[in-house]
Amino acid sequence: MTATAPSGAAAPVLEVRHLTKVFTQGGLLSRRSVTALRDVSFALGQAEIVSLVGESGSGKSTIARIVARLDQPTSGTFLLDGRDVIAGEKRRASRAFRRQVQMVFQDPFGSLNPNQRISHFLERPLRLHGISRNRDEIRTRSEVLMTDVGLTADMLDSFPHQLSGGQRQRVAIARALAVEPKLILADEPTSMLDVSVRIGVLNLMRDLCDQRGISILYITHDLASARYLADRTMVMFAGEIVEEGPSMEVMARPSHPYTRLLTSAVPDPHRLHGFDPATRSELRAAVHVAMYGPGGKPDAPTPGTEVVQVSVGPDHRVRRREPVRASEVTPA
Ligand code: ADP
Ligand code: MG
After folding, report:
1. For position 259, what pLDDT does the model report?
2. Which of 40, 56, 61 for mutating ligand 1's site (highest number of atoms within 8 Å of CB)?
C-alpha cells in the first residue's frame, strides 16, 4: 500500500514500489493475460516481521519471487536498503544481492536434494559466498548453524529422508542463515508441516528476527499464524494489498470486506465485535464492489470510480474503490 516505513522504525530494509506483474497464460489460440499483481507497494523495517495473508492465487508468491529476483516485474521496482535493485542490476541477481535476500519455500521435501547429506546444504553457500574456505571452519560453522535452528550437529551426516518435515524446514532455514541475510522471504514455510511442529518453526523465525535483526516477510493463508508471528499484517486479494495494519487491529476491526470475509471464517476469541453481522454472500458481493465498483470487472472497473487509500486507525489502512469525488473531476 503506502511505501512508507512503519512508524518508529528506521529506514526500511525493503521498499516495494508500485509492482505490477502480468502473466500471459495458455497457448497460441487461447492466450490470455493474468494480472497477478496490481500496483503493490509496501515497506518492511529492519528486524521486523510482516505477514502477507491471502487466498491461493492472490499473488503472494509472485511478490516473493520478484523480490528474490526469480522473476521480473512488468512495472514497478523495489529498493533494498534504499538502493533500487531492478534499476541497479537489470535481469540477473548478483551474488551480493543473493547474500542479502534469502527465500524459504513451502516444501521442505522438494527444496533439499535427496541424494546429498545435510552438511552439503550448509557448506555449499558458505563456500560459494566466500564466507569460509577452510574445511574445519566450514564444518564448525555448519555445526553452529544446526544448533542455532534447534537441530543437532550430528544430523549434518544424515540424508533429508532421515529427517522429519519440521527438521527439514529447519535445515532450509539454516541454509538461508548461512549467508547472514538481511531479509528472509518465507513463502508458506509451515503449511506443509504437521500442526504440532508448526509453532516451533514460527518461534524459530521470531528468534531470528529478535536476536539477529533479520527482517522477515511471512507469507501465509493462515490468519492465526499471521497474527501470532507478526506485529503487522497485509491482506492480499486478487493481486492487490487491500488492507494493512497492526495484526491485532486488522483481525479485531477488519475494514475491507475481503478481510471481514477472511476473519468471519475463523472463530476468534480476540475479535471485538463477535461474528460479522453480514452474511458471507453479502460480504462476497461487497468485496467485488470494493475492488471493481458496482458492476465492474477486474480489467474494466466501473467508470467514474477510483482506487483510494483510507486510513481507518493508527497505521491501519484500507484500499478500496470509490466514486470519483466531484471536486476532483476536472472539467473538459
Ligand atoms: P499465491 O502465491 O497467492 O497463491 P501466485 O503469486 O502464485 O499466488 O499466483 C498469482 C496469479 O498469477 C495466479 O493467478 C497464478 O495462476 C498466476 N501465475 C503465477 N505464476 C505464473 C506463471 N509463471 N505463469 C502464468 N501465470 C502465473
Ligand atoms: Mg504461493
Report:
1. 96
2. 61
Nearest CA to ligand 1 atom 17: 36
Q: How far is CA 52 from the centre of its chain?
A: 5
- Mutation choice for ligand 1 from 56, 62, 74, CB with most ligand atoms inside 8 A: 62
Q: Flag whether pLDDT at 242 surpasses 50.
A: yes
Alpha carbons within 13 angstroms on the beta-carbon side of residue 232 total 24
For CA atoms 280, 286, 291, 292, give the dihedral sign.
positive
Strand partners, 319: 309
Ligand 1 pocket, 61 CB below 6 A? yes
For residue 277, what pLDDT is reported? 65
Task: Return the pLDDT at 3.
Answer: 45
Can you list the domains of the chain with their CATH numbers?
14-267+275-294+306-323 (3.40.50.300)
Which amino acid appears at position 80 of this protein? L
Are the beta carbons of 241 and 1 closer than 8 angstroms? yes
Averaged pLDDT for residues 62-91: 91
Q: What is the pLDDT of residues 97-150, one digit of tens each?
A: 889 999 999 887 788 899 999 999 999 999 999 988 899 999 999 999 999 999
Q: Is the CB of 60 under 6 A from ligand 1?
A: yes
Higher-confidence residue of 89 and 260: namely 260
Burial (0-12, 13-18, 19+ Cβ within 10 Å), 107: middle
Instruction: Name the residue at shortest CA distance from atom 26 of ligand 1.
Output: 23
Q: Which ligand is the nearest neighbour of the Cα of 53?
A: 1
Residue with the nearest Cα to atom 12 of ligand 1?
A: 36
- Residues 229, 205 contacting (CB under 8 angstroms): yes
CA distance 162 to 152: 13
Cβ(278)–Cβ(246) under 8 Å?
no
Half-sphere exposure of 299 (CA within 13 A, CB side): 6
